[in-house]
Structure formats: structure tokens, C-alpha cells
Amino acid sequence: MSPAWPRLRVLRALRALLVVLLAPWRLWAIKDTQDCTWQVALNKFDAIGENHTSDRFFYQEPLDTVDEVFSLLVDAPIDPDKTYLGFPYYLKINYSCKREFSEALVRKGHLTGLKPMVLVSFQSPVNFYHWKIEQLQIQMEAAPFRSKELCNAEEVCVMSWYTPMPIKNGSVVMRVDVSSNGLGPFIPNKRCPFPSPGQWGRLWEGLPNPQVPKEDRRSPKGGNRAGGRLCARAGVGTLTGACPTPTTSFRVNINGFLERQQDNILRFTVGNELFNLIPRYFVNVPSRPLWYTVDQAPVLILGGIPEEKSILLTDTNFKDFFLVELSIDNCWVGSFCPQASFTATIYDAIATESTLFIRQNQLVYYFTGTYITLHESNHGSEKWVHVLDNECVKKLCPVHFHSNGSEYIMALTAGKHEGYVYLGTITDGRVSFELLPRQRSVCDAIKVVNCSITWAVFVAGHYNLLLLVETEDASTRKYFQVVSYDLVRDYLVILYTVPEFIPDAQGLEFLNILGTESYTNISMVPKGMSYNPYNNWLFIWGNFLLMSYNNQNFIYLADFPKELSIKYLVNSFHGEVAIVTETEEIWYLLEGSYRVNQLFPSKGWEVYISLQVMHQSSLYAPNETMVTLFYEDSKLYQLVYLIDNQQGRLVKRLVPVEQLLMYQQLSNGYHLKPQGGHLTLSFTEFCPFMVLRLRDLPNPQTYTRQERYRAQPPRVLEPSGFHNEISLAVYQGLVYYLLWLHSVYDKPYADPVHDPTWRWWKDRRQDQDYYFYLASNWRSAGKVHIDMTSYEKIYDLKAEYELPERIFLDKGTSYSFSIFLTAQGHLFKSEIRHGVSVQPQSRAKLAVVLGDPGCIKVVMKKEVLINRYLVLLWVTLSDKRSCFDQGISGHHLRKTSMLVKVVGSAWHCFQNTLQGPRMQGNLMIPVLIGCPPGKRLAFDITYTLEYSRLQNKHYFDCAQVDREMPCFFFRDIFYPFFLIQDLVTGDSGSFQGSYVLKVVGGGPTMDTIKEYSEEEIYRFNSPLDKTRSLIWTTKNTTTKDSAFHIMSHNSLGIEWLCLENSPCYDTIPHSIFAPEFYFKVLVSNRGVDKSTYCDYQLTFLLHIHGLPLSAKRAFFILMVSASLFVGLVILYLIFCLLLPCMMKACNVLHWKISNIMASESYTYSTHSNTRVFIRTSGTKSGGGSRGSSRVIPKAVQENKDVPKKP
Question: Which end of the chain has less Cβ packing within 10 Å, N or C?
């Protein structure tokens, strides 16, 4: 027996013991995580509880149906006066495991406490002038719901989980992440795709008694025609969604190119959907690039179908797709355009946020979708619009990133405008083109007779146009130049002249082009350019590959064979570049390395394909054609047409870059060594470290600027815990109201509590125990209990053990983290010099590559722990305060990046994860320099009132108190204070910087406020004004030109003046109270505050009361008041003097009137009864005669006393 056998037995025994110890964990992990995946669908409200249904995401308006449900919720912590709306869609969530019945799995998960957690991330809009830039997320817990279909079980047969699918204004691209709450079966976190209605059939493949979805039983002429029957058979070929693709990301996109007809059928507005996928559309057809605005395009299109005016259209990044024949007229402009023949093929297709562009026969068309969430009105096109009339467009060039609130596209012309470029600008769906250069053509600017623009790259952040120009000199020798055109200065300059022949690298991986190197006899034939704004990489490609960091000094990458020719480049913009050649080969380039690796065909690809055939994968076939290659969430994907068993189908599959590189490394890095009379297989360890870990990562929200809300479904008072339509409608309304509170949280006056949800519950917090009592006793209205603590904003997210997707840096801010490298022992060394041991060293070295060294800097500290074979590095990335002017929050951010790499790790170091191997050693993080999103300036009304009361020893509010806008007294010194509120982290602190305060509008009432002109603003606010128009003044310093006052939190306060030529002078009072005035105040720190990149601008209304009157008006009012007072006094005196006479006269008048009335009454009574009068007269004649004798003689006597007339 060989002496090696005992040692081998010991090793086998130790290995067996290790297997026994780890077996339970390994079996649990394999059983629960190997084949289980989440399944997500989109359902409208009326489709809740139906099995195997899914809807298209095209309806964008909120629904008011949930308001009726909220009216039933009495004794609930909601405001009955508010109107609650809902979203049109729900997310339906299930999960499935291979070779197990899905319905039983879902029931088991529910009974063991499993609840899916859904995280919806909204993509920021393009037009930041119209919409606020923010990184918004909402985390929701899914609610269990029983199927409405017939069930013989006592509780449940089929169930699913549901959450609202929120929609946000300004966002048409959303990303959905589904994870577990930690209970029940373990399911790996997935960013899940939405299967089309046809794809739900594939979810049941391999399960007992598979059920065919209803949509698959529909005929092509009926049902939801645009609903995505991508698994339905169509003629010779079959369109299938790629549900089994091991993708981990998906974007939920709104499709604005669908409309519902009167027959309730969805149809495309851009053309007619085709259902026959003919093999000639794809077999042996060259692949083509997929062009779109990165992270912004909700719908992607792909042309290139030979002799057909059809495109592939998808709103799920080719998880499913449609073949659409475009409704455009086949035109040929051969009469004035240099084209050999007519063709119907769509050659160039570009997708933007709301508009699609195509080129056919040198004609350009565009179509704008209906996106109400973007445009707030219907800007959608009714048909394809032909632009650039009478122009021959030979090529469309994409612009991958938006800038300045717009998207861009470039059209290269031929014929009369050869040497010009049309730059198209898309803003809110409106398209306009500008001919560049403005003054003269490129040919005239570079002083050549004939030239042709081969490619164009627009660097939107710098307003710079890079052109690849083919020129011809007098000797008819052709050469290429890179020309730069500055749109701002209208200046054109030649940056670089491409060598005529390919350099001779002489075995090197790369070669600096200095002009002294030797060349081969193979001509360089440039075809295009590609630019990455994060690392400033500029590629010139053709039958070679040149790379530059500054657009002037180029490096030749010699690994790419000169016998091949590049057809197009695919950039991930995260440090990886995929290359597709004319022969459909795929090559790969990694940032930080000058080595170009071949992925297909290669030895690694052969090994990988063999393994896939062994696993009987449906994503690979002997006969396949690549349609396109593209990146999604930093993963490389192929769209491939497969023919298997005479059936054709399109699939989206992941290109396993890491696995292919691993297989290539293993195939090239092994050797056989003779040992003990036999050969031993050994592998060379190329990776300079064993484990790489990140530690001390800061809380991410400060740098990623992600705002996150949390919402949980209302509690249902049912023993089984299943929700119903009412509770789901309440859930919809609460989530909608939560996001509405977020959208309106931009008031200039700061709330006492810095949180958008504070106003929702502030008046009902004291009744929280009462609502809980009702729910505990099952007395809540509608059998629904709303927990106020379940709807909140999260400010304390913890960092994961990986770098964030991107970070934002303000002026002078830093981002720090630590790197732990566990290396092998032979990579460490400790030297002894002169008998003294020096600091131990490690051969594992780190390097840093900065996209803009003039803008950012990195400080690294290294410590070697040789006893633990550990290298510890502290990395601090800082802004250098030099590359950005002040800007509004989230606007005009400068792109750059930082790459930290372990030297020698590229292509050699991999880490195994649940989603497969991942490359290690290159840590690339995009950096955005400027004012981060989510910061704002707010008027600190609370502290302003307190400080003003303290300094002025009193505070006088208006007679009519307004809690939202308190008043300030004119004669008091005004001490304004402001807050810097961070909407992401929840921080709110006093603004310590300098600012300029201006009154930009005003009026005596809210309805009469008007905006002031620039001239008026200067006169009303500038200390240099000589027209006596100042509204206010202060004793603080002024700007450099002394035009305005500079204020800060230590200012001496504002004294109100309202001089005679100011708008607040001589304000007419509208009541007995003193005059009031509303000032519209603008506060800005632009140009006076050097502590931040943020241009804080705040406009708010200031209510001032007690304004003085002018001397003239005051004297007039005094005279009028005195006159009225004197008049009243005189009137009173006259009244007092004449009162006795008036009383006497009144008494006499009253006596006379009484006598007259008595006399008339007596006369009437005597005539009314003659007989009685006669009898009474006879009996009382004596008395009457006596009375008469006493009266008449007196009268006669008086008459006698009167003297008679002569």
C-alpha cells in the first residue's frame, strides 16, 4: 500500500465528518432556495380573485370608487371630509417551486406566516423643470385574498397575495422588488417580472394537472389582443416569454402606446399587432443594437426585420414582447436621396421616455405616446409624424442620457446637408430639430472639400458634440478625424486624427498611440464611437478598438483581432462593455483592464452549453440566431431566436459572463504534476486574495437619497385573516393618500414636526387607544381596523454589505468605507533590516481610478495584519469643491465615478452567490456631484415667532388669526429664520449660510398680489435705490456690487420702511383696523453662500399688519374724523337745547290730534242712530242746554272782544 493512502483516509474521514455536520444546513438551503421563485401579475380591481389573469399597464388616471368605501368607516382614524382615491391596478403575488404544486405551496406559506414584502421604486422624471427630482420608494406588505372561483374546501382552495400598484406623477418606469417577511419557506429575493397573460401558463409547466390560462384559449380575433399572448402558438414560430430566465431585476413600465377600443379590446396606436412569427424575420438576419434613453424609456423597440415595416415592441424589457406592423406609408425619396433601392425595413429605432423614433428609406418618423402622468394632458400622437422633410437621413445616432430636462437624438444627413448634424430635442413629448453647426458646415470648418460624418456623440452635460468625420484630401486619400463642436460658444476644433493603419503592438495587451510606434499594412476603418459620461471613456471602433480618457490621447487595445470588424458596442455604464462583431462574436471589456476577452465562441461557452444541454435547458438550441444584446441592471442579456423541433421562438436569456470567464480560467490554468508515480491535477491560483469584504459602510440614505415609505394593509376582523374587496379598497385609498401627502409636502412654512405624515394623524393620535379598543372587540366599522403606525416614512435604513448603486456628493462631503482582504500566506512578507523587523507588507495591492481627478479625490489608509493574513484598507472619497456651481436640488448633476480595484484581480476573482458567480476585485461606484435631491429651504415660523417675541418684548397678531400664516407687526423688527430640511434622512436644522432676501411681489389682499418686474425688484430691495422706493432695510453687509443685502442667521433683523414710492406705501385700510399687506418674499443663497452646491430658493408670503398711513391721507382722515366728531357734538347740543320746545310742541300736537279724533268719533256716533239720538236729546235737553249756554256765551264773549273792522 502506498504511504499516501493513510493520509488520504484521514482526509476522507475529516471530509465525511464535515459533510455530516453541514448536511442539515445544506439540505435546508438547497431544498428551500434552489427552485422557488416569486410570481407577480398585474390585475385591475374587477379581476381580483380570478386565477390566471393579468392586465396591461396602460391606464394612468386615479379611481374614485374607493371613496364610497371610506364613507362607511365611522369611528376610524380618517378624515371624513377628505376625498380618497385609488390606483387602477393591484399586484398579484404568488410563488412556485419546481416539481411542486403551486396552490398547495401558497396555502402552506400562508399558514406558516409567510407574507410577501413588495418594494416599489419610482424612476425620476426627465423634465425636472416640471416635476420634482426624487428617489422615491414605498414598501408594502401583501394582503392574502381567497380566489372567487368555486371551492369545495371549508376555508380556502386557491389564494394569492395582493398589494396596490401605485402610480406617481412624472414616473412611467417603476421597479418592483419582492421579498419574504422571514416566516414560512425561504424564498430568495427577486426583482420579479410581470408575466403576460400567456406566461401564466408556463408557470404551471411540470406540475400535476396543468391548467391552461383563459387568455391562451382566446382566438387571435377576440379577447385582449394587446394583452400579450406571447406563449400562444402563431404559425410556424412561437413567441414565448422567458419566465425561466434567471433574471433578478425587472422594471414595471407604463405602456402609453395602447388604447382601448369601443369593443373593449386593447390595440396599439403605432400599428397593428401581428401574430405570425415567420422564421425569415430572424434566421440568419444580422443582430442590431437596442437604443434607448437609459433608465427612462418605458417601451423599447427593435427594428431590422428584413423587408417588413415591423418592429419588436416591449414594455417589460423583453420579458414579453409584440410584433407590430407600423402604420406608416411606404415612401421612397430616391428622386433626391442617394439610395440604391427601396426597402420597407426599419433600420434605426430609438426609444425615449415618451416618444419613439424610426428611420425607413432615409425618412425619419416619430410617435409620442399618451402619458398623462408625464404631460398632465394628452400629448399623444394620432399617427406617425414625418420630420426633417426634404432631408436625406442616412443614420440615427442615440443619446443615452438625458440632460437639462430634455432627451436628445441625432440625425446624420446626406445630400445637400452633408457635413451637418440635426440635433433633436424631446421635451414633454414635443420634438424639435436644430441644424448644427450653426454658421458653416464641418467640411468648411476643417477646411476640406469633401467630408462625411460617420458617427456623432452628444455629451449633454457639457453641451459638446463629438463627430467622427471621414475626409478626403486632394490626393483622394481618405482619413478620419474626431471633431469637437461646442454648442455654447459655436466653436469647432479637431481633437484627434485616427491613424491610417493599425499599429503593431508586438505582443502587448495595449499600446499608447504617440506617433512613434510602428504600423501594420492593414487600414483602420472606423465605424462609430461610444462615450461613457461617468468615467469619460471614449471608444472609437471598427476593425480595431481605441480608448481615451480625455478625447485626445488614445490607447490601442491589441487583444481585439484586427481581422474582425465591430458592428456595435453595448455599454453598461458601470464599467463593462460588450462588443458585437460583424460575424456575431461577443467580446468583453472590463474597466480597469486593457484586456479584451472573447465570450462567444470560446472554450468557456462550449463548456457552458454542454452543461445546459445536460440540464435540458429550454433556453438553448442547436440552431439559434442572436437578435440583439443589451444590459439590464448591470447584467448582460441576449434576445435570441431558437429553432427546436421545427418550432421557432424568441427568448431572453442571461449571458453568464462570470461563468464563461471561470470556465476559461479553469481550462487554461491547470497542469499535471507527477507525484508518487502518478499524475496530480493542480490549478493555478490567479486571484491575489481569498475573501473580499466591505465594512463600516455608512447609512445609505444620506448618499443614495432614497426616500422610503412603509405601508401595511388594514387589519381585517376575520378569524382566517383573509382580506375582502372592502379591505383592499381601503388599502388602495390609504396608500394613495400617503403618496399624496408626500407630493404636497412642499409648503414654504415648516411644520413643527418634519414629516409628511404628521398632519395625517396629528388630531387623532390621542384617540389611538379607543380605535384599538374597537378593533379588539371586533366593533370597527366595515370589519376593518386602520393602524396609524402602519403608514410612516422610514429614515433609518441600514447599509448592506455592498456599495450602493450610486451616490450623491455635495460640496466638500465625503463617503468612507473599509475593505477587508483575506489573502493567502505566501502573499505576505515581513522583512528584517539591520536586525530590526519592519512593517509587514502584502503583495495584494489596491489601485484607484477616478473619472474626474480634478473634481474628486481619494484618501486610502492601509494596515496589514500578518497574523490573520488580513489587509485592512480605509477608503475616503471626497469632493474637491471645484467642479460644480450652485444648482437647484437634483438639477444639472455632474457625472463621474470611482473604481477601486485589486491589482491583478480582473478576470480572475469570483464569488459564488445564490444567483451564480459574481466577479470580485473591481468596486465601481458612480458619483453625482452637485446639490443632492431631497433638500429644501423652509421658513422656520415657529422659531421666528419665539425670537421676535423675545427681542421685541411683545407680539401682536392680526385681529383675524390664521394659524397657517401668522402676522407680524410693521413697527417690530423682523427676524427671519430658515431651516434646511432633508426629506430623505429627516434631518431639520437651522440654515447657517448666507442668503439674499428680496420682495418680489405683494398686494393688500391675497387676491390682489402681483409679481414685480426686475426693475421694481431692484428699486424695492436695493440699498442703492435713490427713488425712495425701499420696502425694507437692514444694517447687514451687501453683495460685492452693493446691489442687495446679505443676510444670515446672525442678522440684525429687518426694519420695514414702505417709502412713498413703494407699493405698500399709503395702503388703504378696508376696515376699522390698521392696513395690512402681503409680501411675496424670495430667499436665495446663490452667489453668496460658499458652503454648499445647493441653490436654495424659497418663495413664501409674509403677512404684515399695522402699516402706517401717509401724512396726507392721515391728515385727511383726521380732518374727516374731527369734522364728523364736531358735527356730532353740535348736533347733540342742538338736540339738547331744542328738546323742551320739541316736547311741548309734541304735547300740543298730541292734544289737538286727540280732540280731533274725539270730535270725529262723537259726530259719527250721533249720525249712526237718529232715533236714539232724538230720544236722548229730548230727555236731556235741559242739561245739554245748560252745557251749551256755558260754552257758547264764552265763545260769543271772545268774539265780542275782537275789534271789528272799519
Answer: C
Distance of alpha carbon 162 from alpha carbon 44, whole angstroms: 11
**C-alpha span between 208 and 96 (Å, rounded):** 13
Residue 221 has pLDDT above 60, yes or no: no
- My answer on whether omega of the bond before 144 falls inside 30° of 0, hence cis, is no
- Region 1142-1159 average pLDDT: 85
Buried b (16+ CB within 10 A) or exposed e, 621-636: beebbbbbbbbbbebb
Beta carbons of 450 and 472 less than 8 angstroms apart: yes
291 to 296, 350, 457, 569, 628: CA distances (angstroms): 12, 5, 13, 11, 10
Contacting residues for 1083 by C-beta, under 8 A, at least 6 apart: 937, 939, 976, 978, 995, 996, 997, 998, 1096, 1097, 1098, 1099, 1100
pLDDT of residue 68: 87
> What burial letters (b/e) apply to 584-620, b meaning 16+ CB within 10 Å?
ebbbbbbbbbbebbbbbebebbebbeeeeeeeeebbb
Of all helices (H) and strands (E), which one includes residue 163?
strand 159-164
Q: What is the pLDDT of residues 224-266, one digit of tens each?
A: 333 333 332 222 333 333 333 333 356 789 999 999 888 888 8
**Whether the Cβ atoms of residue 830 and residue 884 lie closer than 8 Å to each other:** no
Residue 973: count other Cβ atoms within 10 Å of its Cβ: 15
For 530-576, how does the pLDDT look when each residue is reduced to its tens digit (9 = 90+)?
999 999 999 999 999 999 999 989 999 999 999 999 999 999 999 89
Amino acid symbol at 170: G
Confidence at residue 1167, expressed as pLDDT on a 0 to 100 scale = 54
pLDDT confidence of residue 31: 40
Long-range Cβ contacts of 215-218 (<8 Å, 24+ apart): 215/52, 215/53, 215/54
Q: Judge if the upstream peptide bond of residue 601 is cis by omega within 30 degrees of 0.
A: yes
What percent helix, strand, coil does the chain show, rounded to 5? 20, 35, 45
Quote the Cα angle for 894-898-900, to 5°.
Answer: 175
pLDDT class for 108, splitting at 50, 70, 90?
Answer: confident
What is the band of 2 on the pLDDT scale with cuts at 50, 70, 90? very low
Question: CA 1014, 1015, 1019, 1025 torsion: positive or negative?
Answer: positive
Number of other residues whose CB lies within 10 A of the CB of residue 1120? 10
Structure-derived torsion over alpha carbons of residues 676, 681, 686, 687, reported in degrees to the nearest 10: -100
396 phi/psi in degrees, rounded to 5: -105, 135
Three-class secondary structure of residue 214 per DSSP: helix
Rounded alpha-carbon distances, angstroms, from residue 511 to 506, 1125, 1190: 9, 102, 155
Q: To the nearest whole number, what is the mean pLDDT of the chain?
A: 83
What gap in Å lies between CA 180 and CA 860, rounded to an integer? Answer: 38
What grid cell was written down for 270?
403605432
- State mean pLDDT over 44-51: 86
Mean pLDDT value across residues 198-220:
32
User: Looking at 13-22, 84-93, 606-615, which range is the least confident one?
Assistant: 13-22
Predicted TM-score (pTM) of this structure:
0.85
Residue 871 has pLDDT above 60, yes or no: yes
Could you identify the residue written with the cell 444541454? 613
- 391's CB contacts (< 8 A; 6+ apart) are 364, 411, 413, 415, 417, 422
1013: CB partners within 8 A, 6+ apart: none
Query: Residue type at 454?
Result: T
Mention every residue, 6+ apart, whose C-beta is less than 8 A from residue 268.
226, 257, 258, 313, 322, 324
User: Cβ(855)–Cβ(841) under 8 Å?
Assistant: no
Share of the chain above pLDDT 90, in %: 53
Instruction: Please work out, in degrees rounded to the nearest 5, the angle formed at the alpha carbon of residue 715 by the alpha carbons of 712 and 719.
Output: 135
